[in-house]
Amino acid sequence: MSVLRLARTNPIRAKRIKLAAACRCELCGDEMPLEWLELHTYPDGESLSEQTPAMQEGSLLVLCAECHRQLHLHGITVQEQEALVRERTPSISREITALLSYRPKPYTPPSVDLEESYREASAPNHYRVAG
Known about the structure:
By secondary structure, this protein is mainly alpha-helical. The protein has one domain. Helices cover 47% and strands 8% of the residues. It is built from seven helices and two strands; from the N terminus they run H-H-E-H-E-H-H-H-H. Helix 2 (11-20) packs antiparallel against helix 6. The longest helix has 12 residues, at 90-101.
Protein backbone atom coordinates (compact mmCIF):
# COMPACT_ATOMS: atom_id res chain seq x y z
CA MET A 1 0.00 0.00 0.00
CA SER A 2 1.35 3.41 -0.89
CA VAL A 3 1.43 6.14 1.72
CA LEU A 4 -1.09 8.09 -0.33
CA ARG A 5 -3.45 5.11 -0.23
CA LEU A 6 -2.79 4.66 3.50
CA ALA A 7 -3.64 8.30 4.17
CA ARG A 8 -6.79 8.16 2.03
CA THR A 9 -8.14 4.74 3.01
CA ASN A 10 -7.13 4.81 6.65
CA PRO A 11 -6.79 8.42 7.82
CA ILE A 12 -7.01 7.33 11.46
CA ARG A 13 -3.93 5.11 11.09
CA ALA A 14 -2.07 7.91 9.26
CA LYS A 15 -3.03 10.32 12.06
CA ARG A 16 -1.80 7.87 14.69
CA ILE A 17 1.54 7.49 12.90
CA LYS A 18 1.93 11.29 13.00
CA LEU A 19 1.01 11.28 16.69
CA ALA A 20 3.53 8.48 17.33
CA ALA A 21 6.21 10.79 15.94
CA ALA A 22 5.12 13.31 18.60
CA CYS A 23 3.71 15.65 15.92
CA ARG A 24 7.27 16.55 14.94
CA CYS A 25 8.80 16.81 11.51
CA GLU A 26 11.58 14.24 11.39
CA LEU A 27 13.71 16.51 9.20
CA CYS A 28 13.57 19.97 10.81
CA GLY A 29 12.40 18.74 14.24
CA ASP A 30 9.67 21.37 14.58
CA GLU A 31 6.44 20.46 16.30
CA MET A 32 3.52 20.99 13.93
CA PRO A 33 -0.26 20.66 13.90
CA LEU A 34 -1.33 17.27 12.54
CA GLU A 35 -2.78 18.85 9.40
CA TRP A 36 0.66 20.21 8.46
CA LEU A 37 2.40 16.84 8.70
CA GLU A 38 2.69 14.43 5.78
CA LEU A 39 3.89 10.85 5.40
CA HIS A 40 6.79 10.18 3.03
CA THR A 41 8.17 6.82 1.93
CA TYR A 42 11.33 5.95 0.09
CA PRO A 43 12.70 4.72 -2.23
CA ASP A 44 9.40 3.63 -3.80
CA GLY A 45 6.18 4.11 -1.88
CA GLU A 46 4.27 1.77 -4.18
CA SER A 47 6.30 -1.23 -2.96
CA LEU A 48 5.37 -0.51 0.65
CA SER A 49 2.67 -3.20 0.68
CA GLU A 50 5.23 -5.86 -0.22
CA GLN A 51 7.29 -5.12 2.89
CA THR A 52 6.92 -6.35 6.44
CA PRO A 53 5.63 -3.75 8.94
CA ALA A 54 9.16 -3.39 10.39
CA MET A 55 10.52 -2.69 6.91
CA GLN A 56 7.67 -0.25 6.25
CA GLU A 57 8.52 1.63 9.45
CA GLY A 58 12.12 1.87 8.31
CA SER A 59 11.16 3.47 5.02
CA LEU A 60 8.59 5.97 6.27
CA LEU A 61 9.16 9.53 7.46
CA VAL A 62 6.82 12.05 9.07
CA LEU A 63 7.58 15.45 7.56
CA CYS A 64 6.11 18.94 7.66
CA ALA A 65 4.72 20.12 4.34
CA GLU A 66 7.65 22.48 3.71
CA CYS A 67 10.35 19.86 4.40
CA HIS A 68 8.44 17.32 2.28
CA ARG A 69 8.28 19.80 -0.59
CA GLN A 70 11.99 20.65 -0.22
CA LEU A 71 12.90 16.96 -0.05
CA HIS A 72 11.21 16.31 -3.40
CA LEU A 73 12.50 19.54 -4.93
CA HIS A 74 16.15 19.14 -3.94
CA GLY A 75 16.20 15.50 -2.96
CA ILE A 76 18.18 13.82 -0.25
CA THR A 77 19.80 10.44 -0.57
CA VAL A 78 18.27 7.22 0.67
CA GLN A 79 21.16 6.98 3.14
CA GLU A 80 20.25 10.40 4.59
CA GLN A 81 16.60 9.33 4.88
CA GLU A 82 17.64 6.10 6.59
CA ALA A 83 19.75 8.15 9.01
CA LEU A 84 16.65 10.18 9.94
CA VAL A 85 14.73 6.97 10.67
CA ARG A 86 17.60 5.68 12.85
CA GLU A 87 17.31 8.84 14.98
CA ARG A 88 13.85 7.75 16.15
CA THR A 89 13.56 6.50 19.67
CA PRO A 90 12.91 2.75 19.96
CA SER A 91 9.47 3.43 21.46
CA ILE A 92 8.43 5.55 18.45
CA SER A 93 9.70 2.85 16.06
CA ARG A 94 7.77 0.16 17.95
CA GLU A 95 4.58 2.21 17.97
CA ILE A 96 4.75 2.95 14.23
CA THR A 97 5.50 -0.73 13.51
CA ALA A 98 2.52 -1.78 15.64
CA LEU A 99 0.26 0.67 13.77
CA LEU A 100 1.46 -0.67 10.42
CA SER A 101 1.01 -4.27 11.64
CA TYR A 102 -2.59 -3.87 12.76
CA ARG A 103 -5.11 -5.84 10.72
CA PRO A 104 -8.72 -5.61 11.87
CA LYS A 105 -10.53 -8.87 12.52
CA PRO A 106 -13.07 -9.74 9.85
CA TYR A 107 -16.63 -8.97 10.86
CA THR A 108 -19.03 -11.88 10.98
CA PRO A 109 -22.65 -10.87 11.49
CA PRO A 110 -24.58 -12.76 14.16
CA SER A 111 -26.47 -15.83 13.03
CA VAL A 112 -29.66 -14.64 14.67
CA ASP A 113 -32.94 -14.22 12.84
CA LEU A 114 -33.35 -10.47 13.30
CA GLU A 115 -36.95 -10.46 12.13
CA GLU A 116 -37.91 -13.06 14.74
CA SER A 117 -36.01 -11.15 17.44
CA TYR A 118 -37.89 -7.97 16.51
CA ARG A 119 -41.26 -9.74 16.68
CA GLU A 120 -40.43 -11.15 20.12
CA ALA A 121 -39.25 -7.79 21.41
CA SER A 122 -42.31 -5.94 20.17
CA ALA A 123 -44.87 -8.55 21.25
CA PRO A 124 -47.41 -7.46 23.86
CA ASN A 125 -46.47 -8.22 27.48
CA HIS A 126 -42.88 -8.81 26.51
CA TYR A 127 -41.69 -6.47 29.21
CA ARG A 128 -43.36 -6.92 32.57
CA VAL A 129 -43.51 -4.14 35.04
CA ALA A 130 -42.67 -5.27 38.55
CA GLY A 131 -45.54 -4.53 40.83
